[in-house]
Amino acid sequence: MQRTSSSSSSSGSGSRPVSRERNSSSSSARSSSRRGGGLNLGGPVGNGPGYSDRPTRSYGGRSGGGGGISFFALLMTLLVGAVIAIFVKGYYDGYTPGETVDNIVENVQDFVSDLQGNHEKNRAEKSKDKKKNKKSDEDDEDDGGSERSRSLSKVSRDLAASTEVSDFSGLLSSQAEDFIPLLKNLESGDSVAPGNKNKSIDADKFFWSENDQGQQVLKLSDEDWDFIDTVKLNVFLDDGEGYIDLGLDALFDFDENLDLIGEYDGTWMCIERQPVAYYHLQTTGDEDDYEILGYVPAFWNDEHVNIIVVFDSDTPKGYIKGVKLIEDGPGNDLSVNEMTTGLKKIKEGDTLDFICDYYDYDGNFINNYFFGDTLEVEGSMKDLEIKNYVIDGATEATYLLTDSEGDHYWTPIMN
Questions:
Q1: Of 145, 240, 296, 342, which residue is least crowded by CB atoms under 10 Å?
Q2: Are residues 249 and 306 both part of a single domain?
Q3: Under a CB-based contact definition with an 8 Å cutoff, are residues 50 and 377 in contact?
Q4: 411: which DSSP letter?
Q5: pTM of the model
Q6: Which residues have C-beta within 8 Å of that of residue 312, sequence separation ≥ 6?
Q7: Is residue 210 located within the same domain as residue 332?
Q8: Structurally, how many domains does the chain consist of?
Q9: What is the C-alpha radius of gyration for the chain, rounded to an integer number of angstroms?
Q10: Nearest 5°: phi and psi at 414?
Q11: Is the pLDDT score of 201 beyond 60?
Q12: Residue 6 in domain
């Protein structure tokens, strides 16, 4: 397995991001539970934008930023096929295009009503509305366009209202803004789903395939990889009530074809075997001469800090550079220069209480908590071990890729 690209590869000469060196143990980490009451630090100490568009198994695998071929792609294919079939049938049955659109709207409403368990009630209301409006429709056919527009709006509201019904209906309603405009676009000949527009890279490319070794891999072209700036592993730990965010780590591998391998080994970064939430800041250089910066939110002797962690070509296993005092706010909005200057040193006898962000099963931020046990420092700061250990509990891992335009893409959850 390779950490980055090689110009001699048969796959081409497209560049690949640089990963830190993998340094993992098969032994279990120490406590990985949150403790105490919420710290109320003013927002996430880690990923500021949050995870509302991150795919997870617990809330339907919604992907937002490009979560793969997924169920939505299949659903859209089936819906477009159904729309075409209805138009063909409408043509042979003598319906006008406007009447055919109304039939499509009616079928979508029936489908959503079935999901909500209120099909019979909505059907009766629909029948009553039809009888009430039948005469006015016959007298003024020109109003068909506005009626269709109102019907489409109603479908959008119905779809949105179905979010609480189930994971499946939640997925459908979350994509209503793509489906409803698509119905309108069919009349104008534009069949491109709006959700796939305005992306630097086609979001539908982000799905897992299988390579010759039976590994899950993400296959992108060299041209696409040239556009990708960062790849970050994100892991959520499910504690039975929500998700502990373990962070965003520049840790990944490529196969011999330079495809990103989608396999998670169940480990995460620890300091002295204590799991920590770690967030990648910046990677500079190339595979032979690199520096990777990141931080770990914590309380250092009761002061809120970010612990600055460095991995470089001279010290690939990493070391702690110092701590940055956070005087106000959660501390995730500092520039790299601000984060890495004016650092304080950790000394023997100091205490570290690590911090994690906590999210509900819909990806909404709840609060910050202490994470694991208090660590009392023994020895010097640079002697503190940084290593990956196995995290006990249910974890969900995915990759977050960001391109040079700032667009981001989630891979599906890794098996």
A1: 240
A2: yes
A3: no
A4: P
A5: 0.68
A6: 290, 291, 292
A7: yes
A8: 2
A9: 26
A10: -80, 140
A11: yes
A12: no
